[in-house]
Amino acid sequence: MTKHAAARKTKRPQDTVARLTDAAIDVISKNGWDGAGIIEIARRAGLSNGAIYANFSNRNELLGAAVERHMNALVDFLGSYERSSRSEWDALIGLVRHIPKANAKGCTLPRGVLSDQLFAEAFAASSRNARLMTVVKRYMDVAAEQYTSFSGNALTEKGLDHVIDARALAWLICACLVGARLLHLIDHPAPDADQWEHLIDRLFGNLSRGASLDSKKRVRTAARKQSRP
């Protein structure tokens, strides 16, 4: 980054930047990444083209900043389950149970969370744009680390940390989240909400019961070893 670019970045009026990134998100969602032009973004933001170049060095920097801001909002939104649940295990189940709901038609996500269209555009365009690839990869790395910590705490709480790898479980959650958004984009029907929740409750319930039985088995095995002459 040049000295001029660094200076420009430190002096950005936050309200102007927010208006520009929100407008960029709207235009990308409507016209696609390649169709998101500077003129339309400025018009949607109610600002001049000069306002864009006063805050960003070029179109790709603006679009990348917009995607980064909104991807961070998605991480925070999904992470709210951990903060609001009574236990780590309940939070983990709540997150997985929520996956189809986050992508169902009529589900209103907080302002700042990526639409399915934008989510897909960001992933597709990242293969052609090195800066965007960095943004998308950083987002997935942050999400994976968040869910690894999240999963590890939940597994430890239930005594499953020696049975299931937290990173593998986090990868599964990320894959489900990304896949669900892409499936919704092509109008692939989501499962019935009650049936999905029943499935998740059964799967995690079986994991929990299996851990309890395994723990009892280890206790009995240790007791038998100690009783041997």
Describe the structure.
- The protein has helices spanning 3-10, 14-31, 38-45, 49-55, 59-84, 88-98, 116-126, 130-157, 166-185, 193-227.
- The chain has 229 residues and is mostly helical.
- The protein has a single domain (64-227), classed as Tetracycline Repressor, domain 2 (Orthogonal Bundle), CATH 1.10.357.
- The N and C termini lie far apart (73 Å).
Outline:
The chain has helices at residues 3-10, 14-31, 38-45, 49-55, 59-84, 88-98, 116-126, 130-157, 166-185, 193-227. The chain has 229 residues and is mainly α.
How far is the first residue's CA from the last residue's CA? 73 Å
Portion of residues within helices: over 70%
The third-level CATH topology is: Tetracycline Repressor, domain 2
Largest sheet: none
Tally the helices: what do you get?
10
Judging by the overall fold, what is the CATH architecture?
A: Orthogonal Bundle
How many domains? The number is 1
Low-confidence stretches: 1-11, 103-112
Gross morphology: elongated
The structural class is mainly alpha
**Overall mean pLDDT score?**
76
Give the SSE order as H and E letters.
HHHHHHHHHH
Identify the CATH homologous superfamily. Tetracycline Repressor, domain 2
Per DSSP E runs of 2 or more residues, the count of β-strands stands at: 0
Query: What is the beta-strand fraction?
Result: under 5%
CATH class: Mainly Alpha
Radius of gyration: 22 Å
